[in-house]
Amino acid sequence: MRIFKVNYFPDTFINYVYAKYQDLAGASYSEQLDKLFYESFSWGDAWTFYLKVFGYTTEEIIYNAPVLQNRWLLENGIKSDGVSLDDVVIMQINKFQPDILWYDHFDAILLRKIKERRPGVRLIIGWTGSAISDYEMWKYTDIVLSCAQESVDILNNMGHKCYHLDHAFDKRILDRIDMNKPKDKEAIFIGQLIRASDFHKDREIFLDKLSKKSSITIYSPTYKEYKVKLKRLVKIFIKRIFYNMLNLMNKKGALYGALIKKRVFYNISILTKKPSYGLHKDFSASLKRCMRPGVFGLEMFQIIRDSKIVLNVHADSSPKYASNMRLYETTGVGSCLLTDWKRNIGDFFEDGKEAVVYRNYEEALEKINYLLSNPKVVEEIALAGQKKTLNDFCFEKRILEFDKIIKANI
How far apart are CA 69 and CA 144, in angstroms? Predict the structure, then answer.
């Protein structure tokens, strides 16, 4: 079977890769794509690599990498004038002729267009984490996959067909970073602090308290970077309100249809669920003192590998279940995971032996101090956690679950 996977990567990561490899923009399409995937952001091209064993033919693209996509147009003899990124994706899908479309993006309008223009696709798969970005989109999918049981329950209750599929660790990363360096960093946290609803309000409060009593290093966008993102969120929020007003006034009206056709609006409904927390506020002085610029790809994995303790704080949209990628990224490269308690955490790691679990700020601080004072314990937990992840939470195992889901629905 042929699978075509549409990926959306943050612009900050894409810009980071092109800045890191300064001649990359002049390289061929395949060279650019390989380098972007080699950096191992999110899943990279792990699904393509590991699905080969099961006889799948897979092609993956990065929707929002304009330099890359323009190179594809050039190599296929197509002029880029007047061609949108949406157009390029549809061309790529039509050329590949997939049986299955895996849509790892949040744009419902684009997915609807793909479905209309490529009716031969036998199965359309959606993906969501714990923060469901757009409820409108799932009606264009046949099944949805999610690492978060909260999302699985919500979508199934809404009548969608949603399966639970946990993240996995790509063992190839171990050959792409230096695994022999001494661990010269103590306790770190890597992650975003997005204040829009259902994202990281509780995480920010937690880290703010922790920053006042510990020397934890926090790798996250700086306030300057955050303000740029904030402006973008505000613009999307305004457009979404306008979108809903027109929709209520006359969903079939000519004005509405014309504006939708021109893609004036962004359908990101999560921003309108409830008021956002403290969007106007600066980060506290103690939090800013601990903050460092965000890190991506292999640089992020190297920093995780070089750290004795890696703190994990799930997003606000994961109140019950452990599900994020940091569980596997940290343990996979052999560092000690300190993660927040969730009702299913025991399904992944044994507390005190394969990872360390905390229930509140006071306990997290206490355990950070204890672990830093007991390096032998940290080393033993890190090694046991890595063994567990490489044996049980690797892509070789996760592919078995994915293949079973596909065969039950194709």
Answer: 26
| Residue ranges per structural domain of the chain | 2-168+395-409, 171-191+294-392, 226-272
Q: Do domains 2-168+395-409 and 171-191+294-392 have the same CATH topology?
A: yes
Q: What is the pTM assigned to this prediction? A: 0.86
* CA 84 to the chain's CA centroid: 24
Looking at domain 171-191+294-392, which CATH architecture does it have? 3-Layer(aba) Sandwich (3.40)
Interatomic CA distance for residues 306 and 317, integer angstroms: 29
Report which of 162, 173, 159 is spatially closest to residue 128, judged by C-alpha positions.
Answer: 162
Would you write out the chain's pLDDT as a tens digit for each of its 410 residues?
999 999 999 999 999 999 999 999 999 999 999 999 999 999 999 999 999 999 999 999 999 999 999 999 999 999 999 999 999 999 999 999 999 999 999 999 999 999 999 888 999 999 999 988 778 899 999 999 999 999 999 999 999 999 999 999 999 999 999 999 999 999 999 998 876 555 778 898 999 999 999 999 999 975 455 545 555 555 555 655 665 565 566 555 555 455 544 444 434 444 444 444 454 467 889 999 999 999 999 999 999 999 999 999 998 889 999 999 999 999 999 999 999 999 999 999 999 999 999 999 999 999 999 999 999 999 999 999 999 999 999 999 999 999 999 999 99
The CATH class that applies to domain 2-168+395-409 reads alpha beta
